[in-house]
Design goal:
By secondary structure, this protein is mainly alpha-helical. It has two domains: 111 residues, no CATH class; 114 residues. It is 66% helix and 0% strand. It has 14 helices and no strands. The N and C termini lie far apart (63 Å). The model has no long low-confidence stretch (mean pLDDT 96).
């Protein structure tokens, strides 16, 4: 099956898109260059194949695109149990070496919406993980599935407790905070006023929020006044 999958992926490759992604995504893996609509279509087809379990058990992780495909196949399984999703996803997470793997695959796992408590408990150990992209997984899980009325307070608490200092973790926290500002401004603003994050995360969150069309010009101007300035000697 791996040979067939390789042939299908290579057939979908576009050299221009490969070059574009190579400039955009820092990864140790070879990038074949497959556009997301084509990759998602292939994943959907594979998820309904009677041999999908064989693929999930024996798949190769030889390229950037292979890893994306595997994650998208998991997200397209028909009514999978949470245990099944975790069984295939957990080893895959250890293969992530870039932001696109994390963001694309985690956001596709809509099944997580139905089991918030179990999902949070499962991914909580990643909060203190040493890995940059495993920790980013935890941030993106919170951002994608826990910025809602039931869990906003818990999510904001975790954002403050995640160790900062790794670039792709910090960028994810800033992104998540900007989304939280848009959705729960009154709850998120105090964290900026109290400067609960590093200068980088703090200022980047404000920058991303100010780029949103969902925040009024007046609020954007106010947020700009909260930026932490560099103190020169």
């Amino acid at each position: 099956m791996n040979t067939i999958i390789n042939q299908k992926l290579r057939a979908l490759a576009e050299s221009d898109y490969k070059q574009f992604n190579e400039k955009l995504i820092p990864t140790q893996y070879e990038i074949i260059g497959i556009r997301m609509p084509a990759l998602k279509k292939l994943a959907k087809e594979m998820a309904t194949n009677p041999d999908v379990e064989t693929y999930l058990q024996q798949a190769e992780y030889t390229t950037y695109d292979h890893i994306l495909l595997y994650g998208l196949v998991i997200s397209n399984l028909k009514k999978p149990s949470l245990e099944t999703v975790f069984r295939y996803l957990d080893p895959l997470i250890l293969k992530f070496d870039n932001w696109a793997h994390v963001d694309t695959i985690i956001s596709s796992l809509k099944v997580f919406k139905h089991y918030p408590d179990e999902v949070l408990a499962h991914f909580l150990p990643l909060k203190q993980d040493e890995g940059e992209f495993t920790k980013r997984v935890f941030v993106i899980v919170l951002m994608d599935f826990f910025l809602n009325d039931a869990y906003i307070d818990i999510a904001l608490k975790h954002f403050q407790e995640i160790p900062q200092g790794q670039y792709y973790v910090d960028m994810a926290i800033a992104w998540a905070l900007s989304v939280a500002l848009i959705k729960y401004y009154d709850k998120t603003l105090p964290l900026l006023e109290q400067q609960r994050f590093s200068r980088f995360v703090h200022n980047k969150a404000i920058q991303k929020a100010r780029e949103s069309y969902r925040i009024s010009p007046e609020t954007k101007e106010f947020l700009n006044t909260l930026k932490i300035k560099v103190i020169s000697d």
